[in-house]
Write a structure and sequence with these properties.
This protein is an alpha/beta fold. The protein has a single domain, classed as Alpha/Beta hydrolase fold, catalytic domain (Rossmann fold). It contains 10 helices and 8 strands. The longest helix is centred in the middle third of the chain and has 15 residues.
Length: 299
């Protein structure tokens, strides 16, 4: 399936976007997680959604891929500004309303969109995400959790972060191996780790990155943003929560909380970890299409 690339301005930021499908079909915006480019959404996932009657848009966040690099010391930003980026993209494509699919940090942004402008988000899909990023941020920074409602990352994931921080990166090959192991650390469930697909995506990402360090700015953006524990209760769009039963980054309880807090939300539990496993693409596409059609049939 052919796709079309265009750049969209969001204030002083220029954002790379790519669209699949027909403009006359239902707009569907994919919002990826922290530090990852839009191409982390697998192309087969985008193409299958487009084949089911959606006009699918994926994009590089600011500070990733081919989008603008931000001098965060002069222009700090939060999730609110990243949500504005998403609105600018929808406006540029003349999508007055859309299905919004957000993964991990992209799910944080998707929650803001659905709560702030309910008339523009017709359906909401929250994948491997949470209403409260604070347990993750505190644990990965080695800080006390306080009275957190939701659990921190699994010990095996935190152990990887400690190990990675101690490893000298001498060559680009070393760095690539460390990135592959980082994705392996987010893997979970009974299915094998899809190393060939992950490595290919990471190599493509490295080849098109404007700056190797700017994606780390996303951690500052998340840390400077409030939780969404109360906000998600305002969401009125029909919502599907997809969460891995063995998610080591945002444990399954995070998905359960979202499904209970958002009125009439559905929960799809999958045998996976935090990352989008290629084997689950058909099930995810089927569930998203069913949510949009208000039934259990697919294209």
């Amino acid at each position: 399936m052919e796709s079309a690339v265009r750049f969209v301005d969001s204030g002083d930021v220029n954002l790379w976007t790519e669209a699949f499908g027909h403009r006359s079909d239902t707009p569907l915006l994919l919002i990826m997680g922290a530090m990852n480019q839009g191409i982390a959404w697998p192309r087969p996932f985008c193409e299958q959604l487009a084949a089911c009657g959606h006009f699918v848009i994926r994009y590089d966040h600011r500070d990733t891929g081919l989008s603008s690099v931000v001098d965060i010391s002069k222009h700090p930003y939060t999730l609110a500004e990243m949500a504005d980026d998403a609105w600018r993209i929808l406006d540029a494509y003349e999508a007055h309303d859309a299905i919004v699919v957000g993964m991990s940090m992209g799910g944080y942004i998707a929650q803001l969109l659905a709560a702030e402008r309910p008339g523009r988000v017709t359906r909401l899909v929250l994948l491997s995400t949470s209403a409260d990023h604070r347990p993750y941020m505190a644990a990965t920074a080695g800080c006390p959790l306080g009275d957190a409602l939701l659990p921190p990352p699994a010990p095996r994931y935190l152990s990887y972060l400690t190990h990675a921080a101690s490893q000298p990166v001498l060559t680009s090959a070393d760095e690539m191996e460390l990135r592959v192991e980082g994705w392996r650390a987010t893997h979970g469930g009974s299915l094998p780790f899809p190393q060939p697909e992950v490595r290919e995506m990471l190599e493509q990402s490295a080849a098109r990155a404007r700056d190797a360090l700017s994606p780390f700015h996303h951690a500052s953006a998340v840390a400077a943003s409030p939780d969404r524990i109360a906000l998600v209760r305002r969401i009125v769009a029909p919502t599907l929560v997809i969460h891995g039963e063995d998610d080591p980054c945002l444990p399954f309880e995070h998905g359960q909380f979202l499904a209970e807090a958002i009125p009439r939300a559905q929960l799809l539990a999958l045998d996976m970890g935090h990352m989008l496993h290629p084997a689950h693409i058909p099930a995810m596409v089927h569930a998203i299409v069913a949510l949009n059609q208000n039934d259990r049939t697919c294209c």
